[in-house]
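Before relying on records like the one below, remember that each one covers exactly one chain. Contacts with other chains, cofactors or solvent are not represented anywhere in the record.
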Amino acid sequence: MTFSTSQITAPPSAARPQLLGRTEQLMRVQLFEAQQRGARERTGTLRTGPWSVDPEGRHSGLSAAVVLDNTLARAIRAAAPGLDWIVTTELQLNFSRPFPGEETVLDSWASAAAVDSLGGMAQASLQDAEGTVYVNATGWFQGVGPSSGTTAEQYRRLASLPLGPETEAPLASLMGMHGCAVPDQDTNERPSVTDQFQDGPQFAENDELINPQGAVHGGALTIMSGLAAQQAMPDRSGLDLQSLRVLFLRPAGGAIAARTRVRHAGRSLRIVDVELVAGGPDVGHLTQAKPFVQAAAVFRAAR
């Protein structure tokens, strides 16, 4: 069944805040329950801050991945109430302009585009109070069984932790990224195009990034994919992320490592492939590891 994406619901004040997981808290996300089948509704907000800043010191649209992953899923659940437990199978983000600075509140408006007994597809936009759109998103979702009681209890316990000063940290720090080369900021060196994946950054195990099923949150995996793609380019300070398509192949957990491949390295357009695999000191060579995630990032010359 297909639903129209043009219908607008009641004013945002009618939305009711929902219980947040720890990943949502770290990214300063507020969620609202979608109410109408297939309607375009305000189902979440994001407040920008230090947690939105990428390794180059710029506010990054990657920080929108968590709120968009959540609000797209809520639109599907409103359209198909029988799909109480769903997982993301694909997330596509398109970044239309540079992300705004600190203390900007952005609204996510989402709607279901198509649903069936197995899952569905939803669309969303992230915009400011004046209607300026910063990110457009499309997500595909699939129904799964509920999480275990132990996982649900751990999820609730982590959600009760306070947001201390250590959470006022840049995006890469919150994701636990390490093992990255720091390039000369004045470099003009372009990356080499290669058919082989190269070892990229790693991301430390962090239970605060789990979803209710006990796996790493799809929004966090999307952020990791974008950060890893950015790190593959020594001249990355002159490039903006244009789009990011992420395919979720299986649940991810524990330490995570990225491997990257630069597929195109033009002066004004770059394409970088990313795979996220199991990381940590006990893992063998990354080229042999089975990926959790496959992603493709497109960059354009910075505006």
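The two ends are 41 Å apart (CA to CA).
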